Amino acid sequence: MINFIICDDHKIIRENIVKVVHEVMMRNKVAYNTHVFDDYDSSFIKVMKSKMTSKVYILDIEMPSGSGIDIARLIRQRDVDSTIIFL
Question: For residue 38, which of 71, 79, 5, 9 has the smallest C-alpha distance?
Fold first, then answer.
């Protein structure tokens, strides 16, 4: 199962990303989950630190609470295998 972890502070962008992920994954008939966040808060960090497999992060670079680049560094400290996509 692929876990898409989406974080953006704009609701419309989050909704569009989820829509695109859904359309692509349904065509390929691959099991997936989406985890959607509006900030790099404690709930995001909890999912980031979880033992989920096959994570794909779709991150906004500029967020109210910090930089997506800094979050990517934290992700890489814990997980070198996940894919990170910046918006």
Answer: 9
**Number of helical (H) and strand (E) elements in the chain, helices listed first:** 3, 6
Q: DSSP per residue over 41-61, as a string?
A: -HHHHHHHHS--SSEEEEE-S
Assess whether pLDDT exceeds 90 at residue 43. Answer: yes
The pTM for the full model equals 0.92
Count of residues in the chain: 87
**Surface-to-core class of residue 73, CB atoms within 10 Å of its CB (0-12 exposed, 13-18 middle, 19+ buried):** exposed
Q: Are strands 55-59 and 32-37 parallel, antiparallel or unpaired?
A: unpaired
